[in-house]
Amino acid sequence: MNLTIDQDRLLSEIEALAQISDAEPPAVTRVVFTPTDLKARTWLRKKCLQQDLAVRQDAVGNMFARWAGTDETAAPVATGSHIDAIPNAGKYDGVVGVLGGLEAIRTLQHSGFRPTRSIELILFTSEEPTRFGIGCLGSRMLAGALTAEAARMLTDASGETLEHVRKKADMQGDLESVQLESGHFHAFVELHIEQGPLLEHAHVPLGIVESIAAPASYQLIAEGAGGHAGGVLMPDRKDALCAAAEIILTIEKAALASGSLDTVATVGICDVFPAAVNSIPSRVRLTLDLRDTDLARRDKVFRAIENKSRAVSEKRSVSLQFQIVNADAPATCSSAVTDALVRSCSKHNLRFQKIVSRAYHDSLFMSRIAPTGMLFIPCRSGYSHRPDEFASPEDIARGTLILAETLAELSH
Ligand SMILES: [Zn+2]
Description:
Layout: H1 7-19, E1 28-30, H2 35-50, E2 54-57, E3 63-67, E4 77-81, E5 85-89, H3 95-111, E6 119-123, H4 137-142, H5 148-152, H6 162-168, E7 187-193, H7 198-202, E8 206-212, E9 214-223, H8 240-256, E10 264-266, E11 270-273, E12 283-292, H9 295-315, E13 319-327, E14 331-332, H10 335-347, E15 352-357, H11 362-366, E16 372-377, H12 393-411
Parallel strand pairs: 4-6, 4-7, 7-16, 8-15
Antiparallel strand pairs: 1-5, 2-3, 3-6, 8-14, 8-16, 9-12, 9-13, 10-12, 11-12
Bound molecules: zinc ion.
Zinc ion binds next to loops.
């Protein structure tokens, strides 16, 4: 089978989708279930129908476009990603996996290939947490990692519930019907830009993902005692910010001491109360984002952080509360999928690198219900989630070719 990707067609579709945006070009803003997002979905649906794909949408708006295989009873092979974009983002994150997936199917159709298993293109709802505060909403629900009951409680910043917004957007059925059982798909493979600089630095055009790191996020609240910055003498203070400062450094040290570069810990928010120039900070809220590819190691680092932070708070007579915001497990990619990706790269003498996905993706949740793999292409300087995000046409076409061949092999 000799496949030729229509690079120009694919690129013009990426440009066309980027026009459906709430930001000034080249920036793209497409927040889930806004009129702009719905317009983009309609545009994509039409493209899928033009290829004779059978399109179905579930209750949370995940879209499945199916190219029927010769054995309709066999579990399908799926590919896909997301088209929602955070405010002021670029045009490639997610989109390359959706339109690349469509182009892969189109290329296989034109080549005369007939799959045994059906091939489905999936558009996942709200991979970005922009509107409802939770990432991978669609794939999370597909995998049963977010219950319908919990999903119904989600609201956006204006107080609109997910339930209301999705019904207004004509997404039919109960949220209970979204979850798919393990085994529903034979395999899932997602094409995505790397969102990091490693492939570009190594001058390697393709990355085959071995594992997907997953974040755990926590909220820490340190409570001491406030007072007048002049009146309370140093030995008598219970300064919550001084405690928080020591805790932040403890967190950094614990991540560095894990023994692996795959452990990363970040305190991104430090809210100080009352935040007045002449008042001793009485309360501080910190957020901790802790990521790793290995769940046991992540848990161990978290326990070290917790113990050492408690020691700091005791020493400083400040109370400390830890709250888990979320803690998703990392995923290991399926060798059945990664081996197929490797075979396709080798066939074309394309260099590839085994890589860890440090951002998380819909694949993280798909891996809970299907053997899953991911293919990365480089993006300039590793930039993503900004208007100057860029992947070269050649890299996009190359990734799409490997995706098409991998779908062919897995669906055969
Ligand atoms: Zn993405």
